[in-house]
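Input/output pair, single chain:
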Amino acid sequence: MHQYLFYIGDFPIRAYGLVLSLSIILATGVAYFLAKQDGRWHEHISDMGIYCGLAGILGSRLWDVFFFDWAYYRDHITEILNVWQGGMAIQGGIVLGAVVGIIYTKRHNIDTWEFADIICPAIILGQALGRCANLLNGDAFGAPTGSNFGIIYPETTLAFHTYGAQPLWPAEVWEGQLDMVIFALLLIYRTASHGKGQVFTMYVMLYSAARFFLEYFRGDYTQLVMGIFKSAQMTSVVAFSVSTLIWLYLEWKRRSSSAVKAVERKSK
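Output:
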């Protein structure tokens, strides 16, 4: 892996930044395709890609800084926006990106739930490509495997500084692969009968479940919350629980609406 692709003068062109930018561009393109296929709101996708992409990067960074690494960054305030050092929490990106998305849809009279259902497969695709950036940068790495199996990172990476030349679990690789599986599952689920908002809540449920179990292989954040789970696992438990309750409510609402419509058809 190469963290630095080339230099323009003294300015480094980093593989991390290039692949991360590419992930946003490609995810926006897929979102445009899905919206165009659906026949609604595709003209808003480019603007949403820019706003939500930037919000996602900012949210991911600030979530990591304040929830995971504040002990370091409170003494290194000027490094808070140095994303190339490693330290991006996808949960924060989803939260701030969703907030910006909600504000945008409300301002343009777009149905937020239906819009989220359309584009959420593109979001998880962007996450999958983003994990490729993590691999190239040597962050979001796994814990030592204790065997000859695993990834040995270059000396310039955070992973090497943390564990040295030990083979580490390919946690970010596995997450990228699982994200691609979730991408396919969401596309399949969109073809089935579902209520408004259920595709997006399914996305949150599937990613939260995958992230929860993958955290057992992660080696960058090992401190347990209340001696039980890691911070990302606690976030996953909350997100999974809330999204499941919302999905069940939306399913009940869908079935109730279908039952009412069936009675009305019979009465006619």
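Residues 4-267 form one domain. DSSP finds nine helices and four strands in the chain.
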